[in-house]
Structures are given as structure tokens and as C-alpha cells.
Amino acid sequence: MLKVISDDKIPFLKGVIEPYATIEYLPGAKISADDVREADAIFTRTRTKCNEALLKNSRVKLIATATIGYDHIDTDYCDAVGIRWVNAPGCNSWSVQQYITAVLATLVFRRGLKFTDLTLGVIGVGNVGSKVASAAKALGMRVLLNDPPRAEREGAEAFVSLDSLLAESDIVTCHVPLEKAGPYATYHLASDAFFARMKTGAVFINSSRGAVADNAALMQAFNNGKLSDYVLDVWEGEPTPDAELLEKAFIGTPHIAGYSSDGKANGTAACVREFSTFFGVDALKDWYPESIPLPPMPQEYALDGTGKNIEQIIYEAVTYTYPIDEDSERLKTSPGTFEEQRGKYWVRREFKNFIIRPLNVNEAVLDSLAGIGFKIG
């Protein structure tokens, strides 16, 4: 019988594989070579380092990660020894869009700014970055896109250089994979030189991978006034975030930008379906969780726009569905429980699951709400 080793924090999975394989659920960071030696497949998240040290002398033939990123997998080694590996591109892209929209809404509301006065620079315009860009445009922001691999493949017309983006953007958000070498290396992309080229007083956001930003460079850019604020969901050295960076962050969260329950369901489904295809388990080829838990708040929201501008209305609607400050406060209060906060993350549902019942909200604002994903009732 087939054997699977799975990260025990992958949701919706228990009971699904058992009719077709033996499956053992283990803490991702503690999965060892002994654990996988007799396994045919590994279901993973970011905490299991799938490299030669783990895989050598095992019978593993498939690694499926329930995440967009795959820098925790030594893909060169896997390719060399014939281990198939797959990630789940786009699985949590709407979740990250919700996270970044909540950041933008909170920042603009608290500072008394206007969306239409701001330029957002999006670095990395894949499944996530493209959705973030669309949301920002729906809010009325000017958006600049930087994605050298796409520009090379598709032509440069839709993109700007990194220098131009940094010089012109009031807010810069990163949505790139972590690449340590090659023509599109992103390790410490946000360096001293990067921050020096940013507009003075700009805001930096990183929800991609922690090591995309150099901790020391980021802290210096904030302390010397180059940056007015920064937001981090990912941390160089996580799960132990730099104490000073966390303390001074406008918003700091424990790598949960993509942790909506919808995104988790998509990631798990990608693993199960790949297992089905690879091992010929036809009964699971279209599998998806039968149900996803309801959020803690009602899914219909009566939104009264009387006397409110678009920034106030967007902030109210967005933070009703996702009170991002609560995630930040939990981490700042208890940074030592970083992994526990990820593992026991609350049921966050994406904008598409909520219906706005508007009162005295004009059509332009309703278009913006629909543009970021809400249903309008």
C-alpha cells in the first residue's frame, strides 16, 4: 500500500487519503529522513526542507506542496534523482489580495489620504501581483508594474523598470519568489541600494518571502526616515522575527497573508489531485473539500455610507471581513508563538464570500467594492 507523510497543519486532509494509502501526519519542521524513508509521497508546506539530507535513501517519488512558493524544495536535486515535485500556483492569490487590500485600506484611512493621490508599485506580477494590481486600480490608485521575466517574454509595454517604480511609488509591495541566483535573483532584492532609490516617505510591504528583504537595510531605511512605514508578513529568519522590526512595523503578521480558509482549501486540493494523477487514484481526481467553515462574522453586511468618503467606506467594509490589526496585535504581543498562530489561524474567508447591503453609497464606490471582490446585494 502507498505511504504518504504529511505536514499535520495541512487542513481538510484527514480522512481523504486514508482509503487509498497509509498517511502519517507530522509537524512540518520536524519531518526527518527516518520519517520519509518508506514513504512514496510527501505533502508539505514551507517548514519541511525537502533536500538531499531528507530524501536520500528514501523511496519518495512525489512531493506536493500546498503553497505557491517552493523554495523549501531542492528542485535541482529532485529533478536529478527523478522525484516529481509540484507547487500550487495561485492557490492563495485571492487571500493575499485581501491581505494587501486590508493593508492599503488601513494605511489610507489612518493617514487621512486619498486612494486617487497614491501610486502603488507592484514588484512581481504573477497570480498574486496581478490581483493586487487589479484591486488597487479598482480603488482608484495609479499602479506601476515591474516583472522582468514577464517583460522579457511579453514585451516591456505594460511594465516599468525597477528604478522608475521605486522613484515614483508611494507604496511598494513585493510578490516575487525567492531566487538566490540567476538573472532574476530576488534574495535581498530590498537592499540598501533598493531603499535608497525609493521615494522618501514611501511605505514598503513584503508578503512574499522573508529573505527578499534585508533586515538590516529595512531597519536602517525606516530609522533614517527614508521609509515612513513598512508592513511585513514574512520575516528573514522566521519563525523568529527580528524584535525591533516587529515592534516598529505598521503591521506585522506571522506569514498568514495567504491563509484564508479558501486559499488553504485550494492548496490542499492541489496536493490531493496531484497524488490522484501521479498514482492513478481516479476517485480523487476532482477532489475538493465538501465544506469550508463559516467566518466568525455574518456574511451579509449592512453598510451605511452616509457622510463617509470612499476611504472610510472601503476601510469599514474591508476590515469588517478581515480585521488585520488583530493579527498584527497578536504577533506583537506574543512573537514567541509565531508558529502556533499560523497553525491555529482563525477562519478568514475572502471578499467573494460576503454580500454588502449598501445604504447611501454611490455607484462609483459600489464599483470599487465589487472590483475588490465583494458581492453587492
Order of helices and strands: EEHEHEHEHEHEHHEHEHEHEHEHHHEHE
Report the sheet with the most strands, covering strand number, pairing sense and barrel closure.
6 strands, parallel
Our measurement of the CA-to-CA distance between the termini, rounded to an integer number of angstroms, reads 51 Å
Structural class computed from helices and strand pairing:
alpha/beta
- How helix-rich are the residues, as a percent range? 25-40%
Report the strand count.
Answer: 14
Rg, alpha carbons: 21 Å
Name the beta content range: 15-25%
Q: Could you name the ranges where pLDDT drops below 50 across 5 or more consecutive residues?
A: none
Shape: globular
Look at the structure and give the mean pLDDT: 97
Helical run tally? 15
Strand order of the largest sheet: 7-6-8-9-10-11
Strand and helix map with partners:
Elements: E1 2-7, E2 21-26, H1 33-36, E3 41-44, H2 52-55, E4 62-65, H3 75-81, E5 84-86, H4 93-111, E6 119-123, H5 127-138, E7 142-146, H6 148-154, H7 162-168, E8 171-174, H8 192-197, E9 202-206, H9 215-223, E10 227-232, H10 243-248, E11 251-252, H11 261-279, E12 300-304, H12 310-321, H13 324-333, H14 338-343, E13 355-359, H15 363-371, E14 375-376
Parallel strand pairs: 1-2, 1-3, 3-4, 4-5, 6-7, 6-8, 8-9, 9-10, 10-11, 12-13, 13-14
Helix pairs in contact: 4-5, 4-12
Short description:
The protein is α/β, with parallel strands linked by helices.
Question: Care to describe what's here?
Answer:
α4 (93-111) runs parallel beside α5 (127-138) and α4 (93-111) crosses α12 (310-321). The chain has 15 helices and 14 strands. With 377 residues, it is of the alpha/beta class. β6, α5 and β7 form a beta-alpha-beta unit.
